[in-house]
Specification:
Order of helices and strands: HH
Helix content: over 70%
Structural class: mainly alpha
Length: 53
């Protein structure tokens, strides 16, 4: 299950990579894709919890 902490860590990774000089566009894209997957999982998890209730 994806937690809000997981999402916040990915946001922090993205911000850190973007503010540093060493991040390539590919690195930023990879972080963004991981965030997209994690967010999708969180939405699905949330919907399944609501359906169970």
């Amino acid at each position: 299950m994806t937690t809000s902490r997981d999402l916040l860590e990915l946001i922090a990774d993205f911000v850190e990579a973007r503010s540093g000089d060493g991040a390539s566009p590919d690195d930023l894209q990879a972080i963004a894709q991981r965030f997209d997957v994690a967010l999708t999982e969180a939405v699905i998890d949330r919907a399944s919890v609501q359906n169970e209730a």
